[in-house]
Amino acid sequence: MFWQGGLVAACHLDDDNDTNLFLLRFDSGSESLLYHLSELKGMASWKQKYEPLGLDAAGIEDAITAVGSFILKANELLQVIDSSMKNFKAFFRWLYVAMLRMTEDHVLPELNKMTQKDITFVAEFLTEHFNEAPDLYNRKGKYFNVEKVGQYLKDEDDDLVSPPNTEGNQWYDFLQNSSHLKESPLLFPYYPRKSLHFVKRRMENIIDQCLQKPADVIGKSMNQAICIPLYRDARSEDSTRRLFKFPFLWNNKTSNLHYLLFTILEDSLYKMCILRRHTDISQSVSNGLIAIKFGSFTYATTEKVRRSTYSCLDAQFYDDETVTVVLKDTVGREGRDRLLVQLPLSLVYNCEDSAEYQFTGTYSARLDEQWGAIPTRTMHFEKHWRLLESMKAQYVAGNGFRKVSCVLSSNLRHVRVFEMDIDDEWELDESSDEEEEASNKPVKIKEEVLSESETESQQAGAAALAPDIVIKVEKLDPELDS
Length: 482
Description:
Layout (H helix, E strand, L loop, with lengths): L1 H44 L1 H4 L6 H46 L6 H4 L3 H15 L3 H4 L32 H7 L2 H4 L13 H25 L27 E5 L4 E6 L8 E8 L10 E10 L6 E3 L2 E10 L2 E8 L8 E7 H4 L27 E6 L3 E4 L4 E7 L4 E6 L4 E6 L13 H7 L7 E6 L16 E6 L3 H4 L1
Parallel strand pairs: 4-9
Antiparallel strand pairs: 1-2, 2-3, 3-4, 4-5, 6-7, 7-8, 8-10, 11-12, 12-13, 13-14, 14-15
């Protein structure tokens, strides 16, 4: 049953996957391009207001036409995929039945049933792949080419090996015979012998060309207000190593402040720096640069204090008032050495002692050269933290509007999603690490895990029954919320 259950299914599945992958971004992408270009065309027509930008209505119209040609070519590819799926399936089914009859094997009744459409599909397959084509004989590769989809996706300037058959297409013939319609700006030009990549590259070049002048005009109208040297890129002339691990920029529109999170790896693995500046450069802010060191974490129920040395792996703003941080306990045992922390900025920028944490250096020099001048505040947490068990957490992303934080493992295979608004006190509620392992109590947070197992040795017994990807939802324990 290889031909029916294997090869036919493989061909069908392969083309079906191509269709799904292609359609995934095609509709939204092409519609967005047309929408934005149409908006630009409207702006270009309003010369009294937008003429200084350098928008060219004719150039934008050419870009819209190029997008239309891309859509036509993409739809052509979809039709080729659909036709290939039907023809392949019908041909190999017919071929399998013919093989069974030649070997005098039993043919199932459902395989003998062929409709007129099936016969047409088989005939189309035979016509496309077994007809005489002398112009293809000298081409590189074999003459018989089952795969018609791949030629559309090759980034080459050569014509298609098997272009679509336009013979008998009344609309195509009508356009070719009408000089007025061929030159009409209302119809998108069609390139039947070119690949999708060729049309896409042409579209990109036309769009870049029509937007080049506005880009130059806008670029020249902008001036640098201030420059704070943070680090030199590793590709610079002096080959200075990259100093910062996760630069993350945040704009607080309410207070008109820019924030930047970073670490200076070679100088300190255990501190996270927060740089903030006012959007109005004429105004200054207190505590413009401060380093955060994570000291201790206290369990809520037993008040046991967890002290260690923590390095900051990643950090992002959860909202305007909170930073979500992933920490690594440098002396903790594996599987229990990662922490997820919510850092309130109200604790960082304490008005009572703000004068003690003023940056005494200068922003005109590189920060790694004046590391000693950066004030350091040690933070101690009694809540807003939890231990990330059995996970080598490395990256974090937070969304305060959706009340969700997402943690990604270092091998990019393990993801945990946390709902952050379940309880304000969402730290790990256990008396000690040893007691936690023994009791295996649930925690005060709803957690959804989508993962491929990172500890195959622990799940070897269930490997035969469990899939590669596991989805687990941990419900809240009512007793913990009471």
